[in-house]
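User: Thanks for the earlier help. One more: TonB C-terminal domain-containing protein. Can you show the sequence and predicted structure together?

Assistant: Of course, both are below.
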Amino acid sequence: MKKLLTLILILPCIGYAQYFSGEITYEVKIKPKSDTLDLKEIIEQNHGTTTSYIITAHNYKSTYYKDKKYSYSYSYDDKTQRMYDDHTDKPYITFRDSRKSNFEYYGSQIFKDSTAAILGHDCYMVMSESEYGVAKTYYSDDIKVDYANFEGHKVGNWYNKLKEVDGAIPLRTVTEFDLYFEIREAIKIEERKVKPKEFKLPQKPLAASFTALDKQIEMQPPSQQQIQCYQQKVNSVSVQRGEKTTILVSFLLEKNGKIKFIKPLEEDAEGLHKIAVDIVTNCGFQYTPGIIAEEPVDSEAYFPVVFFR
């Protein structure tokens, strides 16, 4: 009887121990297909060269570092089923609905005989294809979570990927793009208790990304004065028969219709981004806020300004 009682007490502990909670550090490398490819430009466009990934039974967070400095993070909260994106160069945080898929996934195949050892863990490979390219991902049965806790998580095809490998977490991913390979490999695995405060968001305003909206932001019909304002500013630097150049300007549209945090998506050497920001700031265009669950919400918006150079 005593032995039976001991066995009953031990079994729940064994069941609990099989799931991973902790931190995985990844290194991201770019391998160009051609010597003529500007490697520096590609690295600059990426969020970072090192990633810290923490995960518990229900939540996770991926933090990117560029030149050892924090650059970007995204996190998942199972209570809201939202993903939160924080960029260092944005004064607000955007959120996505994890239940809404964000890309087209074509399929995958498991190769149990294609093995590798990563940080002492025996791994097998899964080849998958999506609109972003072909990826070879290596998993170990030693590092896994309960995939059932992430049911309905469609962003990144996360739930289906987890279910396919019985909750295993990727330790190496090699993604083939048109011009280069991106290699993301674990360089450190630390099993530990992740504290709730590690998922705490910075003190910034929250705004819905366009993918989270049930109804998108709409620009109200511009007045003749607003159109003239736009044309005058664009024509002041455009040339006839010039090449089309589009500058995107981002801003936060509050649910009351006011705009703030106006910023170009990228800066150009000619300074066209400054004129684009001036147009959004001073031409007086009006917008109808985006909708979630039949209620207007603060949301991120983009305005294209077209020049001919």
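User: Great, one quick takeaway?

Assistant: Residues 16-204 form a domain with the outer membrane lipoprotein receptor (LolB), chain A fold (CATH 2.50.20.10).
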